[in-house]
What does this fold into?
Amino acid sequence: MGMAPSEPVGSMDHFSRVRAWLSAISMATEKLDFAAAVTGNSALYIYLGNGDGTFRRTAAYDLPNAFSPVVADFNGDGKLDLVVDTTTDGLQILIGNGDGTFQSPRTIVQRRPKETGLGCGYGVPFVVNDFNGDGKMDLAYCSLAYAQIGVVLGNGDGTFKKPVYYHAGTNYSTWAFTAGDFNSDDKTDFVVWYYTFDPHYKPFFAILKGDGDGTFQHETTVKFPDTFEELGIVPGDFNSDGLLDFVMLPTAGVRVYIQKSVALMQRSQ
It folds into this structure.
């Protein structure tokens, strides 16, 4: 079973973006907390929830130009950890103590020469998933500088294997990506939106099919019925038919694409 995007089935007024990256987590209680890395500040802030919609700041960690925190249990101790990007030291992991505090940051991916940060410009720059099915959390990130998706497989103890890179998007335009089983084979894939000027503006949507062992195939372009410019891609089964759909967040509005029950992911001619 494959997937072909249909016409958008819904839209709504867009929301303004704030220059802060948030990650909602429950660190110590059943009340939701969040971590915030504000662009331009050299710190990661932890706010614990009071359960009534208010929060209190309990900790701050010195991380130069930190942004894009993501949360998961990367060492299998039942406590949530944080991974955050920095423009100077690359990807950093902070192991959680389970009480809303974290251990000192440790580098898991070094920034390469052309990279001023790990991100693709639009959308969420990190995806947490078990890409090889071993029950350990892995991490994928995008590199605008090299037009690549990087994948680091987790060892289950808070450490990671060396990154493996896959071509995606372009290195002169911002782009967006996400992960999910988009061809219904029980293996996690990547989908990517990007654009080129050849010589005019031309958007592309592509899939990198997963092999189920933490590796991915070359990107395959997918035809779309319309022209679009996206700020992010969010997957989900939005019509409860068991097939993975996705929402795309353009510069104005929201587009919902429903997967069709036909042979999908046809290569563009």
